[in-house]
Design brief:
Largest sheet: 6 strands, mixed
Order of helices and strands: EEEHEHEHEEEEEEH
Number of helices: 4
Distance between the termini: 36 Å
Strand content: 25-35%
Radius of gyration: 17 Å
Helix content: 25-40%
Shape: globular
Length: about 220
């Protein structure tokens, strides 16, 4: 089993997680605007507690966005620095997927409409369905006004709404069995998704540790599919 480090700073939460010898440990804090100061000390503390050096890492998973511009850049910068220095590959993981994974881990939700507040009166939106012990994207991720959000038309059953984007719940025209607008991505879930990606051979070189903002690629709002 690989030794993997995971980290995330894409939202108000700052978190790190480690898989080593089959054991998982993590640190998680909600510390808006303090990510740059706290991330590396959190990584160092986590490795120290596990008795693991950075040289023992096989790969590094990280939240590649969507999320706060500055937060995503912090994660990418730290990951690239570590990965280049160690000559290790990286595993970019969607923050919407991590949010859906957390909703399944904590709430048992098998179909999750993940939404992160994108500011500018928009949300980052993605719909995820459980496949084994992994939440997989169904359709595409998008940034759009809450009124444009939609569930996949070909998936029946109950959906759960997770993430800060559900602060706009009264404007999202989607029927869900419950919501949690306080839920934030967690490195534990980035680690789990990264473990699956590693097993599929999806690790990439450090220079491919790039942020995904979605807004860069969207000229006009479009309906999610």
């Amino acid at each position: 089993m690989p030794t993997l480090l995971a980290l995330d700073t894409a939202t108000e939460a700052c978190s790190v997680a480690l898989l080593h010898d089959g054991q998982v440990t993590s640190h998680y804090e909600v510390i808006p605007r303090l990510h740059a100061k706290r991330l590396l000390p959190m990584v160092q503390a986590l490795l120290s507690e596990a008795g693991v050096t950075t040289a023992a890492l096989d790969g590094i998973a990280f939240g590649r966005g969507p999320g706060a511009f500055t937060g995503v850049r912090i994660a990418v910068g730290v990951v690239q620095g570590l990965a280049f220095a160690l000559e290790r590959p990286v595993l970019p993981i969607s923050n919407l997927a991590a949010l859906a994974q957390r909703a399944w881990r904590e709430r048992g939700a098998e179909q999750v409409a993940a939404a992160i507040d994108a500011r500018m009166d928009e949300v980052y939106w993605g719909c995820f369905v459980r496949d084994g012990d992994e939440m997989r994207l169904h359709g595409t991720e998008a940034v759009l006004p809450p009124e444009y959000a939609a569930l996949p038309p070909d998936v029946a059953g109950d959906w759960f709404g997770a993430g800060t984007g559900w602060g706009y719940a009264e404007r999202i025209p989607v029927a869900v069995r419950g919501t949690d607008a306080s839920l934030l991505p967690h490195a534990l879930d980035i680690l789990e998704l990264g473990r699956h990606a590693w097993a599929r051979g999806e690790a990439v070189p450090a220079d491919e540790a790039q942020p995904i903002y979605l807004r860069d690629n969207v000229a006009t709002p479009k309906r999610a599919v």
